[in-house]
């Protein structure tokens, strides 16, 4: 079935990025001064998930390093994922360790790494500044998911990095921030924003024909010849185009479709496998979402499951609140107010765990109706993995009483 499954992974970087040439050229032209040992402008790059931001920056970064190396110029591109490294200390330490690793490989000297915890932040900053000055050249720091860093620890990290150049003599620092959130700049001090966003680029979502081209490029390498039905790639592209033009979603659909066909020992990948893959992805993402919910949200959700198991396809906020009070007491939780329960229900709707609508009851006012969009077995299994939701406790809930109330 597969020739090279890894080609369909997000981490794979193809030699050619379809439909991103204008963005790649823009990034390259902004970073070009590094070849002349001049400081490139800082860049802020925006765009929804799966629009090729990270892949384009990594592509240009690798080309820049190669070009500078051929010309005998010092240039390093350091890529950090701020979803994993989201404090000032860890960002500075990671940059220092990446540079130290690069330098030790080129000079065959032993590494002198900075620990990821334990030093005063000022000491890490000073050590990093000394290291950058000793290495010299141009150092491009890419902060992927920069909004996560700003929301977690403020803009002090960015402020310190943007003033680096004023303290350096033999080296230069340039920054690239990548974000899925167009509004995160609201959290930035105006001085930091003006320094960081000297250039701004927006990556538009892919449309269905563009996603088709991306998938065809990968499928030619990933799958054996004649394995895909003609409608598979267009269907994957169309479904992903509905999800804000997310290329990652399209690749996941295609890869999982192939894996499902492989498990069935099917001769070809068909549109049926794509539809099954879509359902699997939605179920898997739902389980991850449910497992990370706060305990009170899980209690509200479990209350909905009780109503669903009573064959109530649609239930109201009042019904959920009534069951929730018993669930909260059994789980030794503080019982929330009706308003707070309504807020948690809205959050569950926003996350896609449940569906809801507001309906008018005439002179009785308006109420919210809710229902589950997909099967609840995976949700219940995920909830019961939480130690608070152990079977002994849950058996204390008087579901028979609710059956008599809501029949």
TrEMBL record:
It holds the Pfam family AAA_22. SUPFAM superfamilies: P-loop containing nucleoside triphosphate hydrolases, Winged helix' DNA-binding domain. The keyword Transmembrane helix does not apply. InterPro entries: AAA+_ATPase, AAA_22, Cdc6_C, Cdc6_lid, ORC1/CDC6, Orc1/Cdc6_arc, P-loop_NTPase, WH-like_DNA-bd_sf. GO terms for molecular function: ATP binding; ATP hydrolysis activity. One of its GO terms (biological process) is DNA replication. Residues 39-207 form the AAA+ ATPase domain. Keywords: ATP-binding, DNA replication, Nucleotide-binding. Residues 301-383 form the Cdc6 C-terminal domain. ATP binds at residues 51-55, 206, 218. HAMAP family: ORC1_type_DNA_replic_protein (MF_01407). Belongs to the CDC6/cdc18 family. Involved in regulation of DNA replication. This is ORC1-type DNA replication protein. It comes from Methanomicrobium antiquum.
């Amino acid at each position: 079935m597969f020739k090279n499954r890894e080609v369909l992974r997000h981490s794979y970087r193809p030699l050619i990025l379809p439909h991103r040439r204008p963005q790649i050229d823009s990034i390259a032209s902004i970073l070009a001064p590094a070849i002349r040992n001049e400081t490139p402008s800082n860049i802020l790059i925006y765009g929804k998930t799966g629009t090729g931001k990270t892949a384009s920056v990594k592509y240009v970064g690798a080309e820049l390093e190669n070009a500078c190396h051929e010309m005998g110029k010092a240039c390093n591109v350091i890529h950090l994922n701020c979803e994993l490294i989201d404090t000032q200390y860890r960002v500075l330490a990671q940059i220092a360790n990446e540079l130290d690793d690069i330098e030790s490989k080129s000079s065959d000297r032993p590494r002198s790494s900075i620990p990821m915890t334990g030093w005063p932040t000022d000491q890490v900053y000073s050590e990093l500044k000394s290291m950058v000055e000793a290495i010299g050249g141009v150092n491009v720091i890419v902060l992927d998911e920069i909004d996560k860093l700003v929301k977690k620890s403020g803009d002090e990290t960015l402020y310190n990095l943007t003033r680096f150049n004023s303290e350096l003599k033999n080296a230069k620092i340039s920054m690239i921030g990548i974000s899925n959130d167009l509004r995160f700049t609201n959290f930035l001090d105006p001085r930091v924003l003006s320094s960081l966003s000297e250039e701004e680029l927006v990556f538009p979502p892919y449309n269905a024909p563009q996603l088709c081209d991306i998938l065809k490029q990968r499928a030619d390498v990933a799958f054996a010849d004649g394995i895909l039905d003609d409608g598979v790639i267009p269907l994957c592209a169309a479904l992903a185009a509905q999800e804000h033009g997310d290329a990652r979603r399209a690749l996941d659909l295609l890869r999982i479709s192939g894996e499902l066909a492989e498990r069935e020992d099917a001769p070809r990948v068909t549109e049926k496998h794509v539809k099954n893959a879509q359902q699997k992805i939605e179920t898997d993402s739902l389980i991850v979402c449910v497992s990370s919910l706060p305990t009170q949200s899980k209690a509200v959700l479990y209350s909905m499951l009780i109503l669903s198991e009573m064959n109530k396809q649609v239930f109201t906020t009042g019904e959920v609140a009534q069951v929730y009070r018993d669930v909260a007491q059994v789980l030794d939780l503080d019982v929330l107010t009706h308003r707070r329960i309504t807020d948690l229900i809205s959050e569950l709707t926003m996350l896609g765990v449940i569906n809801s609508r507001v309906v008018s009851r005439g002179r009785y006012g308006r109420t919210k109706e809710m229902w589950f969009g997909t099967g609840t077995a995976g949700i219940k299994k995920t909830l019961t993995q939480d130690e608070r939701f152990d079977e002994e406790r849950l058996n204390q809930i008087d579901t028979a009483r609710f059956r008599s109330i809501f029949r």
